[in-house]
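Q: Fold this one first, please.
A: Sequence and structure below.
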Amino acid sequence: MDSQAEYWTAAALLEWQVEMGADEAILDAPLDRYELEPAKPSVPEPATTAEVPSKPPIPTPPPAVDTVAVAARLAAEAGSLEALKEAIAGFEHCELRKGARNLVLSDGLPSARVMVISDAPTREDDMQGRPFTGATGDLLDRMFGAIGLKRTTEISAEGFYLVNMVPWRPPSDRMPTGDEVAMTLPFVQRHIDLVAPDVLVLLGGIPCQAFLGDGGTARLRGRWTEVAGRPALPIYHPGRMKRDPVRKRDTWADLLSLKAKLREMG
C-alpha cells in the first residue's frame, strides 16, 4: 500500500472513531483500566501551626470595681464641702442615683456644734432636694428645738447640721442596703472631718449600724460612745416615734443628755 492509500485509510478510521464518540485522543496506545489499582482517597496534609484556625478568645470579664475604695479616694481628695458634694455627685457606682430626682446631702448650719446623721431621703425629700421635709421633718425640728437647737440659724451654738448616710432616695422609701451604706460611708466620714462638729447624733438604726455595728437603736440609744474621735449619741429616728409614741419619753431623756453634754463641753 502506497503512502497516499495509508493516509486515506487512517483518515477513514479516525472519522469512524469520531462518529462512534471518541472525540479526544490522550494516549498513543490503548489503556486497560481494569488492570489499574483503585485510586486511594486523598488525605489532606496536616495544616501547619500558622494555618490552624484559632478559636476566638474568650472575653475576659472586667475586674470588679471596689466601690468603697473608689469612694474613699474621691472623698479624701475633697478639700471642702463644695468639693465633697461634687465628688458625691460624680460617684457613678451607686444604682440609687439612677432612680432619684435630686442629690439630698445635707441641711442646716455646717459650723454648728452638733452634726445629726440620718439614713436616706424620702420621696418628699427627693422632690425638694433637702433632708427631713414634711411631717417627719417638722417633728425633728420640734425635737431639737425643745433643747434650743435649730437648723435655720447662723449661730453655731444654737444650730445643728443634718447629713444623710445615703444621699439618694431608695425606691419606695425602703431602707438602704448594707452595700449601699458601705459605699457611701467614706463620704460621710469625710463630711465629719470637714465640718468638725463637737458632737455627733446618730439618728436611727442605719447610722448606728454603719458606725457602731450590730446592736439596734433600742440597745444603743442613750449611751454615749465615740465616732470619728468625737462624742456620739444614738437616739431614735423621728419616724420610729411616729409609729411608736412611747419612744418619745426615751428620746426626750436622750435630748436632755445631749444638752448636758454640750454644756459640759463649754
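Q: Good. Now the second chain.
A: Here it is, same layout.
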Amino acid sequence: MMRKPLFLLALLLPLALPARAQSPALFTGLTRLACEALLCLSSGSRPAACTPSLSYYFSLHKQFRTDLSTLTKRLNFLNLCPSASADTHMQSLTQAIARGAGYCDAASLNRNTYETTIRVCPTRPRGSPWWRQVDEEECSYQTVQAIDPHMPRHCSSYYQHGYIAPGDLKPPRYVGQPGHDGRWQAAPGP
C-alpha cells in the first residue's frame, strides 16, 4: 500500500523541480549553423556572429555532375533547423531564402541579360538648328545584350516575405534606361 504513493512521487518529482534547475538545450553543430543562417539571411544586418553560418551556407554548391544542385544543398542545410518547418510561413521563408539569398543581389541580377535591337542615330551636328531632324537613313539598328529590368519572382518573394520586417532587406533597384544603359544597383545603406 505504501509503495504505490512512493512510486507516484518518484515519477512526479522531476516535474516538480524548479525550471531554473533544468538547463535549456542549445543547438550545436550544423543545426546551430542552420538556425543562425536562417536568422542572418532574413535580416538586413549581418553582424560578425553571422560569419561562420553564412560562410558555410555560401560554400554549399554543386561540384560534380552527379551532385545535388546548389539550391537543393542549401535548402537541405536550412531545413536542419527545427524552426524551418515550424509552420507553412516558416517553410515558405526557408524556400524564399534558399532561392533568393546569393542570387538576388545587384551583381547577380546584372548577369540576367537578354538580346534586344536598338536604334542608333547620330547626334545632331553642333551648330545646326534645333528643329533639324536626323535623317532616317542616317540611323542604324544594332543588336545588343541588355540587362533585364524585371526582378525575378523568387527575388520578389525573398525581399517581400511576410516574416521579414518591411524595409529590413533592401532590394537592389534598376537604374538607367532598359535596353541601353540600365543596370541593377545596390540599395543605399541605412
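Q: Anything worth noting on the second one?
A: DSSP finds seven helices and four strands in the chain.
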